[in-house]
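Troubleshooting log. The previous structure file for this entry was overwritten by mistake, so regenerating from the original sequence record. Sequence copied from the archived sheet and checked twice against the printout by T.R.
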Amino acid sequence: MALKTSSELTQTQGNIEFKNVSFKYKEDYDHVLKNISLNIKVGEYVALVGASGVGKTTLCSLIPRFYEVSKGEILLDGKNISSFSLRSLRRNIGIVQQDIYLFAGTVLDNIRYGNLNASQEEIIAAAKKANAHNFIMALPNGYATHIGQRGVKLSGGQKQRLSVARVFLKDPPIIIFDEATSSLDNESEKAVKDSLEKLALNRTTYVIAHRLSTVRHAQRIIVLTDSGIDEQGTHEELIALNGTYASLYNTQLRI
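Regenerated output below.
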């Protein structure tokens, strides 16, 4: 039997469609996601919300194929993502997570990880877009400062802004933010949120959030439950529905 060859993904627009997607981690496990159908338009800003454990992060992890779907298919611009090479697929996706991967090296090297061929000027431009340039210049050796293993010499907000700078440098058409500001203080959260909003401009963007106040302005909010997609709409539409989202939102207001 001939081996299936992967094609290279080029000139991505960013339309993503889930078609009856189900997923479980092992064959004898229960499904984490079941029969999910969802169409995200090019450039749309979408928020995924719901209780812990309903599969928000798992759903987004299927897009760069960190896991393979158990059933159904995910289409990128009309083509099954399983037909693309992993390298070319992931080259078109930028991810900003709560747990940031930084390595022992300089600030410059850590940002360059987003595009190994980038010039110093391009790296500095990305840092400025990520609201990171000013704090970098205040470090003992600026961009040549060594940050220690996992960025131990930086604050949480500083590490997060370096992560955002990496994605600016990568310049992908698809962005995934996974709880990107949930562990930051108020000042750091504002700086990171401002940079994330700039990054999301004209890109297909997924935001996973526990704090619903951070996604009020999403073009579409998708509410996941154990049963799948429960509600979709803008913040105002979902509040008016007085259903799952309204209950989650009102509960957070009281905390």
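The two ends are 59 Å apart (CA to CA). Archived copy saved in two places this time.
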